[in-house]
């Protein structure tokens, strides 16, 4: 019989960890064990968990003597878990009652359709809740990726939240678990390594509530971006290119996505040389957007503006292009036009940090005092701090 253990890293989690554990105890498909790895909490987390253990012997507590970070804590929990599958949860998030049952059933059904198992990781949609448990928004980031395409898609953007992920313990250990050298983006790094051996299964249902509050590690954008580049830099350009072009998309789409990766890695000239070869697709909005950010990098405002206008002509609601046109107009002294573009971007994406920042900015407007957006936006934006 398949066994499933939950692994929860905790650090100063006294306010919410009881809710998290109770949500796992109340699953329609019971878990075989719930392992909490406490990362040297200084509050009453250990006491809260110890109290719950007295009522339920399926809960196990591991106490670390110093703070190592969530990646190390999760690795310790998986090492201790004697189960076939691992369910990851963070210590302030909530699993919906049918989470485990639906993940297991979906994965089984999916793998039965093929001659050999292809999927060893599955994750659901999730909702964001605030500190009081009120639903803030619903996020539908994930998609299902076949094994041969998974790495190519995930290199572009992390679409998997750690809470609610069910993964094969054997594969987790085979790829080396979480990289403890990363304090940020360690989850994305792991999903990338797993995607080289597995398809990524996705349930299009909201089955996990993820709590957003001031202590979330992911709330630091600058550090997130820094670690994302470190993760990408661990792959050769040849490997990334091969992964991108294995996807069953058009040549132009694959080429544009590869150029976007090159730009993120500051390889601007290499990327632009590829864009030039796509002149036949000059009316493709992604080609135009990438040319726009290339010209921004070269500080050629005239050509950048032309490119972003072309994007808007094709896709009027492209938020990143609207923001960039707003910033360009501010720099050029066309304040009314600039604010018109920015207000349109904010109307479409109320949480849009760059556009809100530019709208509040005071003259004189310069390259240094406005914010450009260097990647196209997700369908729905998350609010972050900018530290």
UniProtKB/TrEMBL annotation:
<keyword id="KW-0808">Transferase</keyword>
<dbReference type="InterPro" id="IPR050834">
    <property type="entry name" value="Glycosyltransf_2"/>
</dbReference>
<dbReference type="GO" id="GO:0016757">
    <property type="term" value="F:glycosyltransferase activity"/>
</dbReference>
<feature type="domain" description="Glycosyltransferase 2-like">
    <location>
        <begin position="6"/>
        <end position="112"/>
    </location>
</feature>
<dbReference type="Pfam" id="PF00535">
    <property type="entry name" value="Glycos_transf_2"/>
</dbReference>
<dbReference type="InterPro" id="IPR001173">
    <property type="entry name" value="Glyco_trans_2-like"/>
</dbReference>
<dbReference type="InterPro" id="IPR019734">
    <property type="entry name" value="TPR_rpt"/>
</dbReference>
<protein>
    <submittedName>
        <fullName>Glycosyltransferase</fullName>
        <ecNumber>2.4.-.-</ecNumber>
    </submittedName>
</protein>
<keyword id="KW-0328">Glycosyltransferase</keyword>
<dbReference type="InterPro" id="IPR029044">
    <property type="entry name" value="Nucleotide-diphossugar_trans"/>
</dbReference>
<dbReference type="InterPro" id="IPR011990">
    <property type="entry name" value="TPR-like_helical_dom_sf"/>
</dbReference>
């Amino acid at each position: 019989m398949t066994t499933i253990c939950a692994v929860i890293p905790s650090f100063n989690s006294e306010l919410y960890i009881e809710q998290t554990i109770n949500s796992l105890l109340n699953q329609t498909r019971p878990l075989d064990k719930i392992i909490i790895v406490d990362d040297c909490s200084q509050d009453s987390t250990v006491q809260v968990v110890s109290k719950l253990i007295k009522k339920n012997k399926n809960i196990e507590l591991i106490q670390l003597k110093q703070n190592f970070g969530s990646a190390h804590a999760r690795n310790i929990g998986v090492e201790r878990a004697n189960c076939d599958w691992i369910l990851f949860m963070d210590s302030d998030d909530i699993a919906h009652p049918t989470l485990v049952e639906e993940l297991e059933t979906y994965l089984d059904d999916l793998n039965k359709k093929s001659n050999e198992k292809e999927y060893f990781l599955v994750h659901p949609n999730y909702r964001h809740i605030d500190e009081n448990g009120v639903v803030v928004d619903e996020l539908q980031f994930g998609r299902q990726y076949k094994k041969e395409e998974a790495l190519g898609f995930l290199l572009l953007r992390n679409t998997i939240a750690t809470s609610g992920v069910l993964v094969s313990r054997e594969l987790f250990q085979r790829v080396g678990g979480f990289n403890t050298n990363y304090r940020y983006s360690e989850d994305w790094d792991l999903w990338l390594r797993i995607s080289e051996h597995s398809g990524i299964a996705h349930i299009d249902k909201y089955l996990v509530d993820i709590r957003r509050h001031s202590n979330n590690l992911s709330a630091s954008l600058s550090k997130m971006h820094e670690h994302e580049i470190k993760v990408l830099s661990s792959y050769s350009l040849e490997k990334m290119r091969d992964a991108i072009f294995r996807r069953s998309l058009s040549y132009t789409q694959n080429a544009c996505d590869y150029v976007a990766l090159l730009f993120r890695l500051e390889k601007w000239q290499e990327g632009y040389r590829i864009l030039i070869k796509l002149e036949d697709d000059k009316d493709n909005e992604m080609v135009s957007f990438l040319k726009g950010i290339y010209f921004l990098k070269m500080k050629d405002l005239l050509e950048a503006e032309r490119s972003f206008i072309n994007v808007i002509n094709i896709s009027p609601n492209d938020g990143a292009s609207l923001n960039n046109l707003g910033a360009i107009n501010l720099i050029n002294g066309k304040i009314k036009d600039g604010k018109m573009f920015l207000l349109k971007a904010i109307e479409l994406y109320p949480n849009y940090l760059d556009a809100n920042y530019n709208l509040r900015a005071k003259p004189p407007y310069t390259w240094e005092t406005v914010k450009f957006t260097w990647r196209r936006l997700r369908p729905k934006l998350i609010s972050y701090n900018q530290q």
